[in-house]
Structure formats: structure tokens, C-alpha cells
Amino acid sequence: MTFEMAFVLIIIIVMFVALLIEVARPDMIIFAALVLFVLTGLLTPEEAFKGFSNQGMLTIALLFIVAGAVQKHGILEHMMTSWLNKSSQKKGSMIRFYLPVSVSSAFLNNTPIVVAFTPMIKKWCQERGIAPSKYLIPLSYVTILGGTLTLMGTSTNLVVHGMLIDYGLEGFTLFQLAIVGIPVLILGFIYLFTIGYKILPNNKGFSEQVKKDTREYMAEMFVTSEFPFLSKSVQEAGLRDLKGLYLIEIIRENERISPVKSTTIVSAGDRLIFTGLISTIAELQQIKGLRLETGTHLDLDDLKNGEVQLVEAVVSHQSSLLSKSFKQSQFRSRYDAGVLAVHRNNERIKSKIGDIVPKPGDVLLLLAGSDFINTYNNSNDFYVVSTLDTPNNLNENKGKGWLSLVVLIAMILTVTFGLLSMFKAMLLAVFIFIITKIITPEEAKKNIQFHVLLLIASAFGVGTAMTKTGLASWMAKVILGIGEPLGIIALLVAIYLLTNIFTELITNSAAAVLMLPIGIEMASSLGVDYMGFAVTIAIAASASFITPIGYQTNLIVYGPGGYTFSDYMKVGTPLSILVMLVTVTIVNMVWF
């Protein structure tokens, strides 16, 4: 091993550790490693940033726009809601829902699908007295499995495809991965609705737990004429920075003031709604003019009106809220929303709301303005997974909704029959969406997840460093030295496991970018078809079932389903092993 190879290996190990302990956002960590390679002269600027012009990465950017345009008008959601409402409470009927969801995920971005359908599943379960936890992990898993059916099914497939083209090799065709994807999807369905269903926990959703235990986290104080701070601001009255308590709303006759600002004036007759550590309410009772409403029948539904709504949002890995408390991030004024409660690891965090430092996967129950969902639905800070009264997202202009579906189907057909490449077909689709005003340029820009693109493009540079210094070749020889005597099956298993472990620990696209150079080198050394290794790596990088952090969709359902980390391990490990066995068997039969 040369000094350059050792240096790259050390940087990659440090990068992995930084990703594991979450010292910063994943895209910034990998970008920092890339910058280090440029500064030390290991990579030229052209080599380092070539990934930013990679066809696979650019196709992913277009895919974000296409998915956003198709889902903007709510046609798919409306169709799925109607379809779902016809289902009975028998779990077998849910297959009628998950099958079209998995097919949709083969052509659209998985994340918005899970975000859109999580509240549908929850509502369906609540109406039938079924625990949502029985269906939300399967929702995430079937979208992952559906993504293995086509080239455009996941960003991972497009990344591997783009890298193969960069190597001067032939990439995937649109349905080439379906050779493995279809058997994997079928067996995955069988597992999830038999053994997996029995293993899944029987939890109530976060909002249901909160509704049941409203008095444990909410209290109401009545302002009498004896209150010494009448006509003073909330700040002057000392109600802004209370120990353990958070003033979430003021009810004044027919007026609702939420979120409460520090300048809001307190008047006699006001009903002050507090959340947080209700056990500390005694401190407020000692203030003259404040009376605890012990007989109150306060309920979550009492907080809702035309101007205010209750919203559940899941904190994302890319959130700017991480590492700062809600008070430090000025959440209330920044988002015009108040945090009612925070849910982590199937438990409500019992501390003062303002002092809580959010983590990825935390579920926030928010009291927000009526335009909150439209404003922050595509926010990088969190995934808005529901309102407790899920609105009908069907846009009045159904024509544009149906036209977007027609364009999507036409795009798929042009690629299927070889009339256009995936990149050109998506480029044309986006152009049609914009000129027909199905989506505006501003909306298109908003739908692009730039942090994902930065991560992928930076990972391309890290992969280039591995190849240029010979580290990829060296690692391939090490794996070959151990696995070659055991046969090609053992090598495929080794590549699959390494890729899958990287996916669970970091991200799917980064895992694929780091492992593909090794797979290509192994295929070259063995003198076999590189496509077998490429397919194995693509499937393994997508098949993230064991942790909630390896794949975005797992994180989205983590809180709403009331899951613990171990739930993913118990349900996901057998599925992960099943997918690996099927993948390795089929790849060996077809390509070797």
C-alpha cells in the first residue's frame, strides 16, 4: 500500500466515523473529504468536481422535478385514497394498497410517496381500530423494494448507471434491474404480510397517544382582573421564559392567538394554554391573578380553527435544527409555529420544550398557521407527514394533474422503446411541465433536493480518489484473496454485505459510489461480466431495512409509527437476508 492509498483510506475512515456520530450533515462531511483531496493535490479540481456534471446525478435532479410535478396536483393521492377507503380491515386487503404504491415508487421518488401516504395509512388504521405501526414500516419497505424495479426507481440506480457510463461502460436499461427486482418484491410482500406482520409492534400513533394523555402535557390558566400585568406584554408579564413551561396559545373570547409572540398583550379573561412540564404548573398558580382551570375539558380539537392547525413533522438528517435547542433556533418566530410536544423512541420527551435539542427522526407535534403545510412541505428541515385532520390535496385543476401523468407515462415509453435516453426523456418531460405550466420554474427549483445532489457529487469525487490512487484495486485484491477460493457466490455475498453495511451506516448513494470501483476492479481481475457486480451493488445499496437512519423513508415512518430502533432490526434483518439470497442467486444465474 502506497502513502497516497493509505492517506485516502484514513480520510475515508474518518469520514465514516464523522457520519456515524453525526458531527455535521452527511453532504457536508463527504464534501469536506473531497475538498481535502483537492487541497492536498490528490485530485485536480476537474477530477474532484466531475461528479457535478455526471449524467446520473443530473438525471436525479430532473427526477425530483418530475416527481414533484406529478404529485403537485394530488391525482395519485386522490386515486389511492379512494382505493384505500374500499379496503376492509383484514390485513390482506392492504396488499391492494401496497402493490400500486410499490409500482409508483418504481417511477417516482420514494420520499414524497411515503410522506404523502403516511397520513392516509394512519387515518385508515385509526378508523378501523388498527395500530398504524403494523403498516408504516411495510409502507417504507415496499417503496424501497419497488425502487429496485427500474433504472429511475431510486437515486442509487441512477448513480450506479452514471458511474458506469463515466467508466466508458454500458449502463442499465430501464427495466434491467427488474430481473432481480420483481422476485425480490414478490418474496418481500410474502414476508411482510406473514412473518413480518407478526413481528411488528402494536403501537398507537404519536397523535393518538397525545390525544389520550392531553392533561399530562397541556394545562389552562385563566387571567383574572387581579393579574398585576394586565395590558402588558407576555415578556413583561414573565410568561415567556418559564421554568419547564411553554405558552403555546392564548384564547381570547372568539380570538385565537397562536403562536404567542413576546410582544403579545395579556388581557383579563384570557385563557393561557401551556405545554411542557405540567408538574411545574404550581409555580404559576402562586402568581396573583392566574387561576388553574382544573375542570377544563381542553382537547387537541379545541386548539384547531380556520387559522390554526395541528401538524406532525419528522426532523430530517439535513435539518438546520440539529445541534440547537428550539429556543436557540427561534423555532416559534422562524416557522410561525409552536411545538406542543416532541416524540422520540416511542416516548414523549418530558422537559421544557424550548430546551429540547431535536435529533433526526424526532416527531414534532406543532400548532401552526393554516399555510404551514404548503410553505414547508418540501423543507429540508423536516418531513410534514400529516395534519391530524388530513386535508384533501386534490387540486381544483384536475386537467393538469392528468396531463402530468400522461407525460410521465409517455416518458417511460420513450425510454422503454429506446427512442430517448433516460436523461433526455426526463429533460423533455421537465420542459413540457414548465411550458404547460403544470409546474413553475420556482416550484421546480424548490423540488430539487440540493443537499442530496451535493452528497452524491461529492461521493463521486471520493470514488475517483479511490480509483486514481489504486485503493479500489488494492481493496478488490484483498477481497478476492479471501473470497476467490470460495467461489463467485462468496464474492457476491461479500460485495453485497459490504455495500449493505455502508448503506445502513451512511447513505445509499454514497455506499454505491464507494463500492462500485471495487466491484469493477474485481470483475476485471476475474475476467467476468461487470454488470453482475453493478446490479448486486445497486440492489444492496437500496436494500436498507435494518436501521431507521440508512434510508429516508425509514426515518419518515420512525416517529409516526412509534417505533424503536430495535423494531427495524427485528423486522428488517430477515428481510435483508432474504433480499441478499435472492439477489446473489439470480445474479449468479444470469450474469456468471
TrEMBL record:
Chain ranges of the RCK C-terminal domain: 205-290, 298-382
Any one of the GO CC terms: plasma membrane
GO biological process: potassium ion transport
InterPro entries for the chain: Cit_transptr-like_dom, DASS-Related_Transporters, Na/sul_symport_CS, RCK_C, RCK_C_sf
Signal peptide stretch: none
Transmembrane region(s): 5-22, 28-44, 56-75, 95-118, 139-160, 172-194, 403-436, 448-466, 478-499, 505-523, 530-551, 571-591
Matching Pfam families: CitMHS, TrkA_C
Keyword Cytoplasm: no
Subcellular location per the Swiss-Prot or TrEMBL entry: Membrane
Topology relative to the membrane: Multi-pass membrane protein
Source superkingdom: Bacteria
SUPFAM superfamilies hit by this protein: TrkA C-terminal domain-like
Main localization (coarse): membrane
Alphabetically ordered keywords of this record: Membrane, Repeat, Transmembrane, Transmembrane helix, Transport
Any one GO MF annotation of this record: monoatomic cation transmembrane transporter activity
PANTHER family: BASIC AMINO ACID ANTIPORTER YFCC-RELATED (PTHR43652:SF2)
Protein's name according to its UniProt entry: SLC13 family permease
